[in-house]
Specification:
- This protein is an alpha/beta fold.
- A hairpin with an 8-residue loop joins β9 and β10.
- The chain is elongated, with a radius of gyration of 21 Å.
């Protein structure tokens, strides 16, 4: 990815643990600590293994706290104003948590400033999506930024790119994104996305990014996506046992994979 960090072994282990299930570090702590007794005849191994057991347990506790804070950060958002009042790091964490609740594995690449390149990497079922976050109150995102993220997407071999802003986009930026695997999420669309994944959310608000991944063909007026409540797009299956068959797919694909039969 564009940002490279000189991480040590413990940093890498913690990063891997943070992406896994919550019970994993505690299970590893128990296994390693128990194993230290099995090799007690070796003078150095028990001490080293005990140290790693403590590391795994401490990492688990830190991850529990981090995930709890991220959940609270998302569920406590009430309006676009509360979103815009967040710090840059918390804005990125908020966006990451929103996509995490959609089933993505989210890698936070860091970046506490307005121009840090790729902020998030989303992974899910063969998808690789690069995300740039822009917590701007009054500024509009111009075409330069959209071109840059598109260039990164191509260079990294990603399947799509998303720009998420608490503000808006210029007309040239929207024109450039049209017809490309680029999604532009403005402030209103971000608020709708967050409300759709909040724990105590009211009925789903359609999440409508400015530029959908694929241009819609025809949108039914009565049927909504069974997953997010958004509009549906008539599509044709390109492969698999149903190749050539038509179906209604969510217009927010690949963020949402809701489908309905035609």
């Amino acid at each position: 990815m564009p940002r490279k960090r000189d991480d040590g072994l413990l940093d890498v282990l913690f990063e891997l643990l943070s992406r896994g299930p919550l019970w994993l570090p505690f299970l590893l702590a128990a296994i390693v600590y128990g194993g230290s007794f099995a090799v007690s005849q070796r003078s150095d191994w028990p001490t080293v293994m005990t140290a790693f057991a403590i590391f795994f347990a401490a990492a688990g506790l830190i991850i529990v706290v981090q995930r709890s804070r991220r959940r609270a950060l998302l569920d406590n958002q009430k309006s676009l104003e509360t979103i815009r009042s967040l710090s840059w790091p918390n804005f990125e964490r908020l966006v990451g948590e929103a996509y995490r609740r959609q089933g993505y594995s989210v890698e936070e690449l860091g970046g506490s400033g307005p121009d840090g390149g790729v902020d998030l990497l989303l992974l899910r079922s063969g998808e690789k999506v690069v995300v740039q976050c822009k917590r701007w109150k009054n500024r509009t995102v111009d075409v330069r930024i959209v071109r840059e993220i598109y260039g990164v997407m191509v260079a990294e071999g990603a399947t799509a790119a998303i720009v998420v802003s608490s503000g808006r986009y210029t007309a040239p930026a929207m024109d450039f994104a049209r017809g490309k695997p680029l999604t532009l999420v403005d402030g209103d669309a971000l608020l709708a996305l967050i409300r759709n994944v909040q724990v105590d959310a009211s009925p789903a608000t359609p999440f409508n990014p400015i530029t959908p991944m694929e241009p819609p063909a025809a949108i039914p007026t009565s049927d909504r996506c069974p997953n997010c409540g958004g509009e549906m797009v008539r599509r044709t299956a390109r492969k698999g046992p149903n190749a050539g068959a038509e179906f209604w797919g969510c217009s927010q694909y690949p963020q949402c994979r809701g489908t309905r039969a035609v």
